[in-house]
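INFO batch 0412 | record 1 of 1 | parsing
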Amino acid sequence: AFKNAIKNLALEFKDVIHVWMCLGVEAANTGSPYRKNNPPDEIYDRQVKAAYEAIKEADPSAVVFTGAIATDCEAKTLKRLYEGPAEGSFDGVTLNTYASYWKVCKNNLAMMDAHGDKDSPIQIFEIAEHAAPLSGPQRSGGERQGAATLVRTSVQLLSDFWPRLRRIAWFQLFRLDVSDYSIVTPNLQPRPQYVSYVVMADKLGRGRFVKKIEGRNAVCYLWQDGKRMVAVAWSGASKGMMAFNTDAKEVAITD
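INFO prediction complete | emitting tokens
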């Protein structure tokens, strides 16, 4: 009955939905503090396999990601999904990275490689390095730092794990009970984090990562969108300096 229900759902939306995230936010991770009233691992894993098979029967071209795996630096949950009843029934892996985000991506990709999925993608469903108080004396400085961190973390992850990291979803637009993580205010006014997100998305466009350049106390990531080259650079704890030579007729700088 479960498999038939998923298949009917996939058939209903076959022409609309082409990428699926299978079975629940953080339900995949036994150790997640957010996992409540979910089935035991073995039942969950069998449901993952059944859902994957149902979606593929309805639409063989569909891409099926795992449910979001809560911060798992050692990739234990993914190992279970490969070697347990789920039998690797997914095309890509979804990660929530609330701590050690770079290590989480690196180790889960390594686990995928170890099981023969060396070209399979990952996506980050939740990350919150940009958080800042929505009120009080620390708001202003926190928002500025949060805006910078959002861009730096996004560019670093997308570049370092290019092309396998397909997308990053920041937590989140707005929710009253976790307002420090929101990128707009309760009356939907944009916070600096929102502005930096929009500018970054506009500048990178549909580009691709080209090269990482490291200098003294500075780093630069080069992206190319058609004929347009975009350099995203920042300094570390102290001031850094980089010099660029370009044959471009026009250079625009955004701070």
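INFO post-check: The two ends are 55 Å apart (CA to CA).
INFO record closed
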